[in-house]
Structures are given as C-alpha cells and as structure tokens.
Amino acid sequence: MLTKEGESALLDLRQDIDRIDQTIISLLAERKNRVSQVVELKKKYSLPVHHPAREEDMLSSLRKQAAGADIDPDHVEDLFRGILKESRRSQTLRIARKAVRPDTTVLLVGADGGMGMYFRKWFLDAGYTVRGLEKTDWHRVGELCDGIGLAVISVPIGATVPVIERLGPHLPPDCVLADLTSIKSPPLAAMLSSHSGPVVGLHPLFGPTTSTMDKQTVAVTPGRHSADYQWVLDQLAVWGAVLVETGADVHDKIMDIVQALRHFATFSFGRFLSRKGIDLQQSLEFSSPIYRLELGMVGRLFAQDPALYSEIIFATPQRRALLKEFISSLAENMELLEGEDKEAFNGQFRKIAEWFGPFSDQAMRESTYLIDKLAERF
Amino acid sequence: MLTKEGESALLDLRQDIDRIDQTIISLLAERKNRVSQVVELKKKYSLPVHHPAREEDMLSSLRKQAAGADIDPDHVEDLFRGILKESRRSQTLRIARKAVRPDTTVLLVGADGGMGMYFRKWFLDAGYTVRGLEKTDWHRVGELCDGIGLAVISVPIGATVPVIERLGPHLPPDCVLADLTSIKSPPLAAMLSSHSGPVVGLHPLFGPTTSTMDKQTVAVTPGRHSADYQWVLDQLAVWGAVLVETGADVHDKIMDIVQALRHFATFSFGRFLSRKGIDLQQSLEFSSPIYRLELGMVGRLFAQDPALYSEIIFATPQRRALLKEFISSLAENMELLEGEDKEAFNGQFRKIAEWFGPFSDQAMRESTYLIDKLAERF
Asked: What is the DSSP letter of B135?
C-alpha cells in the first residue's frame, strides 16, 4: 500500500511531468510562430520554402543532443520528423494550393492517363482552366490550343516524340511546352524543334497514387526561355514538390539505373521465383520483416501495368545495352560459387562495402526504422 | 535574391527555432528522469507501473492546451503518444522480461558473436546465470558445463557441427541443447547424435541489432523430449518472439530462397553498381521514395559482416546449385532484350503476375504504407 509520504511524492512527480508537458506545448506554439515568419520571409524573397538539407542537419544535431541526454536518438528523430511534417503541412494549408497564374488555360495532352488525371485534378483545384487532348481529339487541335498558356504532354514514352511533333505547330508562340516523360533527351529535343516558345522537360518521380506532392521530387531539364516557364516550376513548388534541375543526358543516365536496371533486376528475380514455383506464403511465415519487405517490392512490381515497365526498360538502346551488361556481369559471381571460395567472396564484399561508404550506414538506419514500422503494423 | 537584412532575419529565426528544439530535448530528458522516479516509487509500493487512465487524462488535457495555442490537437496527441510509448519502452527495458526458470544456468557457446551477445544480454536481464564458452575456453569445458540447464550454440554455420560434437559429451544428461544456426538439418542431426537429452533447433529470423524481440519470428525445429525444452520456447515467447515450428528439411529449403538467393541477388546488384561507379548520392537526389528504399536494402547488406553472408550463401551444395541456376536463368531475359520485344516482355510479365496472384496486391498495399512512412520521414 501507498503511504501518505509515498502518495505525496508521487503527486509531486506527476505535477512535474504535467508542467514539463505544458512547457513543451508552449514551445511548439512558439516554434510554429517562428516557422510562419520564416515562410513569410522566404516568400518575400522567392526562396524555396522547403530546405531538406537544413532539416537533415537539424535532425543529426538533435540526435547528438539526445544521445548526450540519454534519450534514444531514434525516438527524438521520430518526434522531430513528426513536428517538421506537421509544420510543413500547416504551412502548405496556409498558402493553400493557390494558382501562381490563375488566369491561365492549361492543355493536358493525355489527360485520361494516370499522370494526366493526377495533374488535371491539381490544376483544376488550384483554379486553372484545364482542357484535355486525347487521341480522338486531333481534329479540333487548333481550337483546343487557342489561347492556352501551358501545354503538358503526358503520354506513354513511345508516343511522346510523335505527339510533340504533331502538337508543336498549333501552339501559341508564347505558350509554355512541357512534358512529363520519364526519359528526357528525345522529348526535350523534339519540343525544342517543334515549338519556338518556352520549353521545359519535367519528370515527376512519383506515381499517380501519391496523395500529396509534399516533398515529392520533380526532375527539371531546362529547355528554352527559363524566365517564361519559371511560373510552372513555382506552381509545382507551391504544391510542395522539390525541384531538382539537371541536363537531359545526365537525367537519362541516372534513370537507366534508378528505373530501368532496378525494375529489370526485380523482374528477373520474380521470374525466377515463379519458375521455381516457390511457396510464397510458406516462405513469408518463416520470414523476417526485411524479407517480407523485399519480397513485397517484387510483388509490388507485378501488381502494376506491364506496359509501364516495358516502356521504361526498352526506352533507349543505351538502356538495353546497360541491362545486357548487367546480365553478363552476373557470370563473374558464378565463378565465386564454383570456386566455393568464401574468402574471395568476403574480399569482393569488402571492396563493394567500401565503395558504398557512408551510404551503407545511412541505409542501415533508414531501413531499420522501416522494418520496425513494418513489424509494428503487420 | 536575399538581401543582407533578410539573411540576418532568417538566421535569427533559425537560431530561435534551434533553441526551441534544444529546450524541448532538455525537457524530454527531464521528463524521462521524473518518469524513472515514478517507476521506482511504484515498484517500492508494488503499484502497477502503467496507468492507462492517467495517460488518457493527460492526453485530453494536452489536446485542450494545444487547441488553445492554435496547434492541431491530433498532432499533439500523436507526439505525446510517441513520447508515452517510448517512456513505456525504456521502462520495460529496465524491468526486463522475467525468467521462466530463473534458477537455471545457461551456457552460451560463442557468447562473443553478434547473436551470442544479444542472447547473453536477454538471459542476463531476465535473471539467469549466464556462462560463455569461447574458442579459448575448451580446456575448462567440464567446469563450464557443470550444472547447466541449457546450452545454446551460437557459432558460424561452418563451425556448428564440430562444436556440437565437441561439446556433447560434457553436457549434463538432462540439459537442453539448442542451436541458433540459420540452417537446421546438419546441426540438428549432430545435436541428436552428440547428446542424449532434450534437443531443439532454433533459428531467430532477426539480427542482433533488433532492439526488441517483439513479434520477431523464431523458427523451431523439434529434436527430442519436447516437454523438457518447452520452457525455452516459453521464454522466447515471454520475450515477445513468435515461434513457428517446422521440420529441418523444409526449413532449409525455405531458407535457400529467403536468405541465400535473396542475399546473393542483392550482392550481385551491389557489385554491378560499384563496378559501374554509379553516383549514389546523385541517384538519390533524383529518386522516388521506393528507389531510396530499394537502394537502402542493398546498402544495408554491405553495412554488415561479409562472413555472415558468405556463411549463408556457401552453406550447402544444394544452395550453391540453386544460385547457379538463378544466374543461368537470367540469360533468358537477355533474349527479351535482344529481341527488343515489348510484347514478349509484357506476356512474360503477365504470366509471372498471375503466379504471384493475390500476394501482389497485398505487397502493393504493404509497400505503399511503408513508402508513405518513408516519405514522411526522409
């Protein structure tokens, strides 16, 4: 039983805790106020509102402070990621999803595809006038292009260049021409030669099932008259996207890896599993969360439209060459197996680990976090 | 462009924010300290440590305060649920998880390896007497085995069978003999022939960096006298693990895929990335959350001990044969590339998708959840 003395000690401690919690809330209110001021300032000077690098710096210094105070750094990182996210959310709500150029008419070419529908909604919600141009609409292309300020091409990779060439002559000279294709060099060249006005290549690195554009990346490959298409980039930034600018060639080389190689490797792995007739359910019963996650990545691919992937994988000759090189490179690993040489394997492993460098530790941290989330939920 | 004035205003605001964040962390440290005192007090008076009703009261009063300070009450509730959860977790770690057979002495063979150290800590925290047997301790093996109730083998795969054969003759007849190896047939056979008492094969499907055993899977391959080793399984269950029982052969076949093939495919992918000298940081800048996740899985592998993987990959001849078959199977995909045949690819894709069946949708759901988590956090 609790004595009088014990009871009063407990009460004191609880009051201390309540006071601490109240102070934390006051601090959060103060923080919100300061963040609003930062946003005002940034808008005044047209600076990007999000600053991912600063956030990461903040977080790693907070982690250090937490470790010093004997609090789990992961916990503190979690808390502050929550605070930062809420902060972004409330700022985004405040500036709403306002149109940067509300009086503009936007033409979406391929408005009935996944990304087309996605952007149609965003432009409409922001107050733009939106027209769609589908396959069956070419007979009235002149009418549809009349008076538009922006044309966005959102068609399958293979159709992009012909569609651009067909559309170009109908565009008003000052209209911004942009595309959303996941390769950039051929469409950008086609846009520049088919249209004399402002041109910009865009590649949203997310799918149409993404609910917000918050922190989603859009790759930007400049074409011509950047001052005239800047408002389109501003619009994406207002919607929360992070813009990353690069040349079309560099972009395509990165995507050879980030999209084509990755999808192809996943496809090959899935193909082998199906060929061996692996019992997936049984294998999941005996699986760690990370296996579940990795198998999930493979399963996820096969839940989607094959055309999406074949378009990406077969997009360019360079890409196909890279994938062939990948297959050939695997033969090297055959030697390791045939030699049954653990030491050779370990040596290779260490060399690769060195090359991965600090990224490995970061990957370990991030994926451990996710694995915990997965274990919590499933 | 930012003026001097604007820059200094921005800097001031950021310093304010940093100061606020630091104060919050100090408060969290103070809070943790008070909570520990509460727990001490409660233990002294044998009061229950958790007090759900008080937590709900606290949360609703914090919600009110938040609303008054123009902060989203849901956000504040989320934050404090996180704080309370962490508080419970760190308290739980402190009071550890009780021993099912507290008077038992446990011998850990390989107590200085990753998993050895992991289980040493758990057994110790639960109140068991724990001894370690390392390579250099064989001269006093008799003394170390004297009176023990459980011997756990936690050595590299290649060493498991010889270690078991060497240890067996020294074990008390009623001692439980268990191993933690990731393959089960050879160790189980060795344990059964080297020891006449209770025998069970265990394979914890998680690594030593896992902070809790909550919901983590342990594969159990029965050996002999299950009633006598049941307490070991109960102990794992008390620690939060989920036990899945199977035959050793079935287990090993599943692990050929779940571990060996998966690790090997990841290794090969990482090897190709390093060979091509891909700029990882640049590729991450242009990446969607799912790429980040997938690349993270690769990076994660290379953050770990190569020996761990070579032991797994080279463990048995069947395993090596499977991996060779995997490499050969990739040549089929070369044909798809050389034919530049999108339709053939799509056809294959559909067949595999059909084979994956409902798992694909499940994978899509789970991975979408995780991707959202990832986007939230990074």
From this structure: G
Does residue B252 surpass a pLDDT of 90?
A: yes
**Min Cα separation B235/chain A (Å):** 19
Please say if the pLDDT value at position B71 is more than 60.
Answer: yes
Predicted pLDDT of residue B132: 96
The DSSP line for B61-80 is HHHHHHHHTTS-HHHHHHHH
Distance from CA of B317 to the nearest CA of A (A): 9
Contacts of B76 in chain A (CB under 8 A): 25, 28
C-alpha distances (whole Å) from A227 to each of A88, A234, B15, B166 are: 27, 11, 34, 78
Q: Which of B288, B308, B318, B323 to mutate to probe the A interface, most A CBs <10 Å?
A: B288
- The model's pLDDT over B314-350, given as tens digits with 9 standing for 90+, comes to 888 899 999 999 998 888 888 888 888 888 999 989 9
Tell whether pTM > 0.90.
no
CB contact under 8 A, A375 and B258: no
With tokens 């700029």, the residue in question is: B279
Interval B25-56: pLDDT, tens: 899 889 888 988 888 887 777 676 667 677 77
Rounded CA-CA distance A352/B274 in Å is 6
Nearest of B273, B261, B293 to residue A261 by alpha carbon = B273
- Report the C-alpha gap between B335 and B341 in whole angstroms: 9
How far apart are alpha carbons B227 and B317 in whole angstroms? Answer: 34
Give B261's DSSP letter. I
> Using a CB-CB distance cutoff of 8 angstroms, which residues of chain A are in contact with residue B258?
283, 286-287, 291
CA distance A360 to B303: 5
Tens digits of per-residue pLDDT, A276-319? Answer: 888 888 888 887 777 878 888 888 889 888 988 998 998 888 99
Place of tokens 């980030």: A258
Neighbours of A15 (CB within 10 A): 11
* The pLDDT of residue A149: 97
What gap in Å lies between CA B202 and CA B192, rounded to an integer?
14
User: What is the ipTM score, two decimals?
Assistant: 0.73
Q: How is residue B238 written in tokens?
A: 């008390």
Which residue reads 């402190």 in tokens? B94
3-state secondary structure of A299: helix
pLDDT at B100 over 80: yes
Q: Under an 8 A CB cutoff, do B326 and A282 touch?
A: no
pLDDT band at A111 (very low <50, low <70, confident <90, very high): confident
Q: How many Cβ atoms from other residues are within 10 Å of residue A181's Cβ?
A: 25
Distance CA B96, CA B231 (A): 18
User: Reading across the β-sheet that carries A105-109, which strands appear in turn?
Assistant: A129-133, A105-109, A150-153, A176-179, A199-204, A217-224, A242-245
Position B167 pLDDT exceeds 80: yes
Tokens of residue A186, six digits: 């051929």
More confident residue, B113 or A171: A171
How many angstroms separate the CA atoms of B302 and B306, rounded? Answer: 8
B47-51: long-range pairs with CB below 8 Å, 24+ = B47/A2, B49/B91, B49/B95, B50/B88
pLDDT of residue B371: 67
Nearest-angstrom CA–CA distance, B207 and B46? 35
